[in-house]
Amino acid sequence: MALCLLISCGRSDKTSGGKSKLKKGKVEMVTLPFDVNALGNYTYVGSDTLPNPKCSEPLTAWRAIVDGNGTGTPIGDFKMHFDFCGDSLSNYGNTYAYLVASDGDTLFISCEGRVLEGRLDDHPVFVTSYWKDPFAILGGTGKYEEATGTAMTDDYNSSEDPNSHHHWTGTITMMKAKR
Questions:
Q1: Do the Cβ atoms of 163 and 156 come closer than 8 Å?
Q2: Is 151 inside any structural domain?
Q3: Mean pLDDT of successive 10-residue stretches along the chain, which has 179 residues
Q4: Is 97 among the domain residues?
Q5: Would 5 be classed as within a structural domain?
Q6: Per the structure, how many domains does the chain have?
Q7: Can you give the residue range of the structural domain that contains 153?
Q8: Alpha-helical segments (H) within 97-171
Q9: What is the 8-class DSSP label of residue 25?
Q10: Between the CA of residue 68 and those of 38, 40, 108, 113, what are the distances in Å?
Q11: Which residues are 166's β-sheet partners?
């Protein structure tokens, strides 16, 4: 009987579904470097005529959806999804974006800026356009539930492939379970 009571009162930070469920009394916030690389596939580029239009003034000239994969610190391997709108001057925003880590925890981010034609001196010669813009970390699920932070994009499109290339650096403040 005592053994059953001991087992049933044991500490656990897992829900019945196996997902991490961090309890407020058992976590601390830590600030870590955020440094990730990803390769995106343009799954849609065109007018905002999809079943669920989302673009609003002044960003109504085009909409793009990018899905891809990446890896980095502290998220590890992840899948990414970006859905954003733009104007005729290549400004972009109204971004709905998230990264899903291999454990299923999701990190929400938001960015806006401008895609510039050409390349910078430190870019490879095949870069056709680039963007270096700030983005915000907006929380998420699991270990990213109360995450905050900022980072900069260093992204480009290439003449060698149809993908978008991403390198993001900054910091993230996120929950760390006390053990």
A1: no
A2: yes
A3: 33 40 68 97 93 90 96 97 95 95 97 95 95 96 96 96 96 79
A4: yes
A5: no
A6: 1
A7: 23-177
A8: none
A9: G
A10: 7, 4, 15, 20
A11: 38
